Amino acid sequence: MIRIGTVGTNWITQQLVEALALSKQYELAAVYSRHAETAQAFADKNHALASYTDYAEMLQSGNLDVVYLASPNSLHFDQVMTAIQQDVSVIVEKPAVSNQDEMAAVMAALAKHPNVRLFEAARNVHTPNFHALQQAVGDLPTLQGASLTYMKYSSRYDQVLAGERPNVFTKEFSGGALQDLGVYPIYLAVALFGQPADVNYFPTLIATGADGKGLAVLCYGDFDVTVSFGKTSNSYSWSEIYGLKETLSMDSAGELTQVHHVAADGQVTDLTQPALENPMLPEVLDFARVLQDPDDPQNVGDYRRWLRWSQQVNQVLYALRVTANLRFPADEND
């Protein structure tokens, strides 16, 4: 069993813990929260072996193989680096870090700790529906671009409208729409089409100074990909990838719960795979096989590809912010 500790006690951590239980590959060894009562309550609810209010102490306990980070974005870098230095592997919620300098430092640390693995939890590119979509894209004789959408109203925006500054909507915590929901369609574009040659970002700023929604354009030379995302409204538009006469459509570029192939005559073929019991189950199973058998050739290849995607997505996110002059305090050392 893989001994895992968690940082964060919100809904995404709960969903992760439930996926871990379904996988039967992990043991919840530790829970961290800044507040003892919160940590203990989460540990009791999920039958964790221990709870901590000191992150370094949890890592130094010797009881962990991997730690899962679901903390505010701006805290990821220091927490990732601390884990790597303790030879503890990391699953970190997207975005893994805030900028290219932080990513470069993480890669340098990984090189010094070759037994550590770093996984960015971009769940959509680990799902069976993504693999079906990837195969369908590969079968297109001509690719003419895509339009990807992921827009969901955040309950935290109610707080913004009430004059508050929740972490996910502040630049101080490397927040905003691009750094949250935007990561998923950007991941999809990078995983399917590679790293774009040029990018532009047109954000809509909100009262906190962060982006509440936005439109990104990824230029690939022969075609462009437009990406719409946001946390201040809902969209029910399907995403599309354009061939010559055929089109691939998805209900959501972030969740990928339905995937269709539409032929030239309008005939629809459903490529959707069976529904998942938990949307995080495929990724935790993927991470488990790498952690349990890191030298297996397939696992080596998959891990290198995921890490390359993480680096490329980080570069795209940063380049998009540069075009919009959207800077974070974490960028001060750029």
UniProtKB/TrEMBL annotation:
Residues 155-247 form the GFO/IDH/MocA-like oxidoreductase domain. Residues 2-116 form the Gfo/Idh/MocA-like oxidoreductase N-terminal domain. Pfam families: GFO_IDH_MocA (PF01408), GFO_IDH_MocA_C3 (PF22725). InterPro entries: Gfo/Idh/MocA-like_OxRdtase_N, GFO_IDH_MocA-like_dom, NAD(P)-bd_dom_sf. One of its GO terms (molecular function) is nucleotide binding. PANTHER family: PTHR43054, SCYLLO-INOSITOL 2-DEHYDROGENASE (NADP(+)) IOLU. This is Gfo/Idh/MocA family oxidoreductase.
